[in-house]
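Final report, Chapter 2: Outcomes

The project's central promise was a pipeline that accepts a single protein chain and returns its three-dimensional structure in a standardized token representation, suitable for archiving and comparison. That pipeline is now operational. To close this chapter, we reproduce one record exactly as it appears in the project archive, with the input sequence first and the structure output second.
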Amino acid sequence: MLAVAALHSLLNGAAYLHVRQGAGSALELFLQLAADAAALAALVYFSGGYANPFISLLLLPLILCAVTIPARYAWAMTFWVAVLYSLLARYYLPLILEVDSQTAIDLHLGGMWLNFLFTAALVSAFVATLSGALRRRDAELAQAREKSLRDEQLFALGMQAASAAHDLATPLSVLSVCLNELEHEYAGDEALTPPLRLMRGQAERMRAVLGRLATVAGASADHDAAWRSLDDWLADLLDHWRLMWPGVQASLALDGACPGPRVRDDPMLVSVLANLLNNAARASPAGIELHARWDERWLSLAVLDRGPGLAAENGQSAGWGVGLRLARAALERFGGDLHISPRQGGGLEVGVRLPLAALSTVSA
């Protein structure tokens, strides 16, 4: 019996190493369970055969087979354990005990009680583990379906944005030409010069937005994006954003080793951060803050404002709609996440956490 247990342990060790290497199939699991049943039958053979109360443990490999692998293997295991039980009813080594018949009956009943407890504990442990794995798989499938639906919506939205950008290019060019002519014609008019200059700035802003959309759609960033230190990249991003919001005071706070790690200028990520800053500026025109903290692996950003905060009825800040979904989806592609929480003293804190490894590549 010790030899059988030792050989069975060696077989389990080899199977464990095989599974650790990523290998494994339904057939291999069936063969392993069949070997487990054979080893158990061999132990029962040396300890009284079918009179041994622990012979019902032959049902354990059958139960595991039925709940883990296809039905055809379960029927094959049923046949296998039935053959083993039938053989043990005829061929076995009797267990000789020098006790009276009543003591033998008591020992048998005690063994049945112990076998029941052992079997119940094993079945509960295995079934609970399998149920947990099934629940996790169902949750992952639900998340995958949700992500697929969200990606389809974002794809449709992206197609509409690309179409709108294409349609706006021509009227924007015509508008720029008209503004040039008006500025030349009314160059000395003090009443018209400021409005025309403002219109010129807004037209250039629209041109920059369309150019960024074209860059992302053409996936040219992978070749053209320049490497720079993280602190320089954040400072440059904020400087360009201030050009679009000249009336908003924005400050940058850095917490990390300078110069920071070298990253690439990804247009998609720039759009996400600009969107966060835009929402903060709308909610808090008096001033916003951008805090950045990084270590060897992670970059944490926080956009802070003193706006009205979270709306009581839905727990979401005013102005957050499609932009929030787009920002979350884009950050998930980088392996990051986004969270919104009330800021102490009023306002909102929008936090972004990104792996620095994601900033070493650009989106496709």
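Archive annotation: Residues 223-360 form a domain with the Heat Shock Protein 90 fold (CATH 3.30.565.10).
This record, like all others produced under the grant, will remain available to the consortium after the project formally closes.
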